[in-house]
Each structure stands twice: as structure tokens, then as C-alpha cells.
């Protein structure tokens, strides 16, 4: 089986598994306990905080561990909106992950006003759209750095600078869940205030994430209770998972060939596919190499995916959390593509663990199956 659904989740690296194991066994202590068991677990959590901070170009105290990308996004948006007081207006885009879109819907119930700007045809977002949506009462702007369905990159930092030039009080959040495996992330140099990350997209465990909170940001804690994470996210830390997240990003940082291997796999897939007519790219040529979204004219994506599964290729029609729903991809629809094109679109996503041989074989399989389905 060739796994080409790395945007949904990535396999755990053996080194990550190894790093986590002691925290599931003898180092089981509660990181808040002051005895030796607790101190061992605390040491693991703090080492991982330094690793994650290093990977995103932040200070360790700016990293808040969470239960994943969705929670980070939720804490970021709700916390920034509550801290914004009377400035109730939020600007985001129609191409965001549902974690952002549905949190905005929840905030609307609490009195927020939300403008969802249209993305470009590739799923990325232009600065003009965002600047045009700003209002005097805008409190929060949220834009993803890499779109999880098309791989389009949004110039979030440049947009954040332009937003702050208009109104320095606006808090800018970025969903960087798909960026960490694909692009350099350097938050120290950036104008972004809050950023969300997830371990399982970078060969770490599921159920662990991080929220970057720039020091001094206008943001307040949402998940309150105990004093964990310096009072910014209550609840006993998932020490094993956090250690795994740290090990995963450290591995990424020590692997300068990582990006090149992903690109080789993506290119090998395209070579395997070469010659197949009626293929339209939904991904931009300038997108990240991890994600390739293609429309196969005359073929239904759900049927193609089932046939591919039987033939040994795992891919998806878009975000995993919407898979199985009959709704066409909201990202591709918002990008202005006709519904029949959207319903014939498949996302193939690659990682540094995808071998070029497997990718080429998968490309040839896709070509063969599409030709069969077209009869
Ligand atoms: N944001 C993006 C862009 C994603 O791709 C995902 C993963 O599906 C999430 C947020 C949610 O992350 P998690 O699965 O860790 O909650």
C-alpha cells in the first residue's frame, strides 16, 4: 500500500516512538508533582518545549502545549476575541480549516461579526482582500499559512504587517498546521501574534499540538482550571505526547534533505501519471510539495478513491475530517471551481518517508485506474 494522505496524518517516526516510550512507562509522573517522578516528566516536557520553540523560531515560554491543532486554533481565536473587548469583528477566509470556520461560527453566537474573504482560485488568500475587509472594530484576523487541501501558500507575515500598519491593535492568528512540515517557520521575525501547530502532521503523535503566543499578545486563556502551562492551558500535560512532538520537530530540523525528498516523491508521482489526459491542477505550481490536488475530468473522486484503495493507493478527496460527507470541498468551491470539477478532485499528499519508487508506482496506478473508469 502506498500512503499518499500525509496531509491527513503522518506515520510516527521510530525515533519518536522510542523517545515517548519511557514517558508511558517508568517516567509516568505528573509533570506538576514535585517528587522525582514529577520532576522527570517535567524535564521531558520542558526539553520538548525548547525543541518546539527552536523549530518555530520562538522563545520556549511562548509555546503552550495543547491537545492538537483544533484546540490550539480554538484557544487562539476565542482567547483573542475575548481579549479584544468591544472590537468584535473578525476577518478570516472561506478557505480555512473547519477548526477556524466553526470556531468563528461559535463566536458569532457569542456576538462576533465575521467577514470571510474569498480565496484565490488556488486556495491562497491575497492581502488586498484582507485589508479591504478590515473595519475600525476589527479585533482578530486569522489566516492559514498553507492550505491543507491545495497546498497554496498565503503570505501571512506580509499581510500581518500590512494589517498592523493600519491598526496595531489587531491580533493576527495563523493556522500553521500544514506549514511546519513544508516551510521554514520563524515567528521571532514575524508580525504574527498567535500560531497553531499539530504534532501528527510532522510524524509526531496524534492528540498533541502547540499554540504560539507572542509575549505580550492581547490574548486570554480559555481552557482554565489548574495552573499548567503558566495558567494559559489548564489540564495535566500529555507528557509522552509532548515529548514525541519535541522529538518529531527535532528530527525534522536535523534532516536538511527533508524538503528535497518530499519534492522528489511528488515529482516521481507526476512522472508516473504523465501522459494521462484531462488532468487539471487545483494546486498552484508555487504550492508546497507535500500537497498535490488534481481534478480528473469525467471521473468521480469517491469512486476513484475506492478503486485506488483496492489497488493499493491511499489518498483523499480533501480534509480527513470532512471525508465521508457528501458535501463537495468547501475550499475548492470557495476558490470558484465548478462543482463537477470539485467532485472529481483528489488530494495526494507526500512526506519525506514516501519513496520515489512508491510514488511513481502510485502515479502509474492512478493513471491506469482513471483510464479504466473513463472506459
Ligand atoms: N488546521 C489544518 C490546516 C489542518 O490540516 C488540520 C488537520 O486536519 C487541523 C487544523 C486540525 O489539527 P488536529 O487534527 O491536530 O486537530
Radius of gyration, CA atoms, in whole angstroms: 21 Å
**Spatial arrangement of strands, main beta sheet:** 2-8-7-6-5-3-4
The low-pLDDT segments are: none
Distance between the termini: 25 Å
Structural class: alpha/beta
Mean pLDDT: 96
Number of domains: 2
CATH superfamily of the largest domain: Type I PLP-dependent aspartate aminotransferase-like (Major domain)
CATH class category of the largest domain: Alpha Beta
Determine the CATH topology of the largest domain: Aspartate Aminotransferase, domain 2
Bound molecules: pyridoxal-5'-phosphate
Largest sheet, strands/sense/barrel: 7 strands, mixed
- List the quaternary state of the chains: single chain
Give the CA-based shape: globular
Task: Record keyword descriptors for this entry.
single chain, 375 residues, alpha/beta, Aspartate Aminotransferase, domain 1, Aspartate Aminotransferase, domain 2, 2 domains, seven-stranded mixed beta sheet, three-stranded antiparallel beta sheet, 12 strands, binds pyridoxal-5'-phosphate
Detail the topology: elements first, then pairings.
Layout: E1 2-3, H1 14-24, H2 36-56, E2 63-66, H3 69-83, E3 89-93, H4 98-109, E4 113-117, H5 127-133, E5 138-144, H6 156-166, E6 171-175, E7 194-198, E8 209-213, H7 239-253, H8 258-273, E9 279-281, E10 291-296, H9 301-310, E11 313-314, H10 330-334, H11 339-342, E12 345-349, H12 356-374
Parallel strand pairs: 1-11, 3-4, 3-5, 5-6, 6-7
Antiparallel strand pairs: 2-8, 7-8, 9-10, 10-12
Helix pairs in contact: 1-7, 2-7, 3-4, 8-12
Bound molecules: pyridoxal-5'-phosphate.
Amino acid at each position: 500500500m502506498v500512503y499518499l494522505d500525509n496531509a491527513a496524518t503522518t506515520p510516527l517516526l521510530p525515533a519518536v516512538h522510542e523517545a515517548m516510550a519511557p514517558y508511558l512507562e517508568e517516567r509516568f509522573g505528573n509533570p506538576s508533582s514535585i517528587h522525582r517522578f514529577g520532576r522527570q516528566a517535567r524535564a521531558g516536557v520542558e526539553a520538548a518545549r525548547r525543541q518546539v520553540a527552536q523549530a518555530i523560531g520562538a522563545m520556549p515560554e511562548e509555546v503552550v502545549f495543547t491537545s492538537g491543532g483544533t484546540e490550539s486554533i480554538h484557544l487562539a481565536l476565542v482567547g483573542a476575541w475575548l481579549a479584544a473587548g468591544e472590537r468584535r469583528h473578525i476577518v478570516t477566509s472561506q478557505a480555512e480549516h473547519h477548526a477556524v470556520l466553526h470556531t468563528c461560527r461559535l463566536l458569532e453566537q457569542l456576538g462576533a461579526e465575521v467577514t470571510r474573504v474569498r480565496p484565490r482560485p488556488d486556495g491562497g488568500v491575497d492581502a488586498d482582500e484582507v485589508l479591504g475587509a478590515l473595519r475600525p472594530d476589527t479585533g482578530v484576523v486569522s489566516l492559514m499559512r498553507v492550505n491543507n487541501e491545495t497546498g497554496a501558500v498565503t503570505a501571512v507575515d506580509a499581510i500581518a504587517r500590512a494589517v498592523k500598519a493600519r491598526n496595531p491593535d489587531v491580533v493576527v492568528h495563523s493556522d500553521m498546521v500544514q506549514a511546519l512540515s513544508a516551510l521554514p517557520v520563524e515567528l521571532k521575525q514575524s508580525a504574527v501574534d498567535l500560531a497553531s501547530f499539530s504534532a501528527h502532521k510532522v510524524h509526531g503523535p496524534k492528540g498533541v499540538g502547540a499554540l504560539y503566543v507572542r509575549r505580550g499578545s492581547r490574548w486570554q486563556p480559555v481552557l482554565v482550571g489548574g495552573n499548567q502551562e503558566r495558567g494559559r492551558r489548564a489540564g495535566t500535560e500529555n507528557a509522552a505526547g509532548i515529548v514525541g512532538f519535541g522529538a518529531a520537530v527535532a528530527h525534522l530540523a536535523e534532516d536538511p534533505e527533508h524538503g528535497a525528498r518530499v519534492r522528489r516523491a511528488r515529482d516521481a508521482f507526476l512522472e508516473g501519471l504523465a501522459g494521462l489526459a484531462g488532468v487539471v491542477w487545483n494546486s498552484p505550481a508555487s504550492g508546497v510539495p507535500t500537497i498535490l490536488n488534481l481534478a480528473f475530468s469525467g471521473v468521480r473522486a469517491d469512486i476513484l478513491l475506492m478503486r485506488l484503495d483496492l489497488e493499493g493507493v491511499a489518498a483523499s478527496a480533501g480534509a480527513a475530517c470532512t471525508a465521508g460527507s457528501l458535501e463537495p470541498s468547501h475550499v475548492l468551491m470557495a476558490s470558484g471551481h465548478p462543482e463537477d470539477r470539485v467532485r472529481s478532485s483528489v488530494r495526494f499528499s507526500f512526506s519525506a518517508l514516501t519513496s520515489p519508487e512508491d510514488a511513481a508506482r502510485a502515479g502509474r496506478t492512478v493513471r491506469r485506474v482513471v483510464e479504466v473508469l473513463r472506459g
